[in-house]
Amino acid sequence: MNIHSIKSILMLGLLGYAHILLASEPIEPLPTEIDYDPVKAKIGKALFFDPILSHDRSIACISCHDLDAGGADSRPVSLGVHGGKGNIQSPTVFNARYNFKQFWNGRAVTLQEQAYGPIHNPTELAMNTQEVEERINASKKYQALFAPIVHEGAIDILMITDALTEFEKALVTSNSKFDRYLRGEVLLDDSEEKGYQSFKALGCITCHNGINVGGNSFQQMGTIIPYNYVEGYPDRYSLTKKEYHKNVFKVPTLRNIALSAPYFHDASAKNLRDAIKVMSYHNLGYIISDEQVESLNAFLNTLTGEKPEILE
Ligand code: HEC
Ligand code: HEC
To answer: Which of 41, 212, 259, 291 has an alpha carbon 20 to 30 Å from 173's alpha carbon atom?
Structure first.
């Protein structure tokens, strides 16, 4: 064995070790290069802000997914057409492409399937397919926007939901302080670092992990100390009618969480510190100290990313 092969064995060993170190972090950074179709995303962006998709032309996707409020709704319950009340807090549209399923109970798998939901939901946009297609085809604005992708025939609902999906695919909030820390570009301050260590040590990480710090499993609200059950929320039980699915929801992403108050399906936590206390108690069985709340809060604040390029 010559000196070169010894060197390369050592190098491989080191690389292998670095790989293990990286792979052992339970949270992955968001990519900085985002793939999406720019022509369709531009149409989707116009649709997202346009009340043309609602029956009485009064609201749009943006009404309940405020892109300056973490992509969610700062009201406890969203209001739909004709002032109709929704039945659950609106989740964020940022980074939704990385959720394993869509909606609190996962009833849609893909974003395209999801987009069909609010358009047809009688208390949200309250339209039917034919009405949507007629309106969009009659609009000079959308005729022009869709021109590059519609070569013959009319604009149909699939093209419309596809455009919305491409826009949502662009809604990725890269380069949060925490992602830059994971990539070795910056350090966390003492409180943030302590918070991240508690997040792992207490066990928050067992449910909030992966690229979206959540969004990849269904779990019960009140795993350890039961949480008040109120009939009527679209939880897993509403789909399966299995007792043990009461209060079971998709674990929400914690990305940009500092921006998207209020918290929980019932909007019962008005601020992030309260949400942290409720989670520690009901889902882990701990009453944590004020200092721990502060450091967890500092850590969660490092998950706020940059505004996606498409919104510039
Ligand atoms: C009237 C308020 C309202 C409007 C308008 C609305 N949404 Fe929503 N959106 C919600 C609520 C509430 C939920 C959660 C519903 C549930 O889980 O049962 C939701 C869920 C979602 C989700 C799933 C996120 C996740 O993590 O599960 C996406 C994506 C989304 N909406 C995109 C859109 C798009 C695109 C439009 C426009 C076509 C739109 N929404 C219009 C209130 C609204
Ligand atoms: C057993 C799984 C589990 C554990 C452990 C857990 N969570 Fe959660 N977390 C959830 C679920 C499920 C929800 C949604 C609950 C609801 O809305 O009713 C949630 C919601 C949240 C929310 C609100 C998100 C939103 O958009 O409304 C925050 C903040 C949060 N968790 C932080 C934490 C912290 C901090 C810890 C550790 C102290 C923790 N979680 C531990 C499952 C878990």
So the answer is: 291
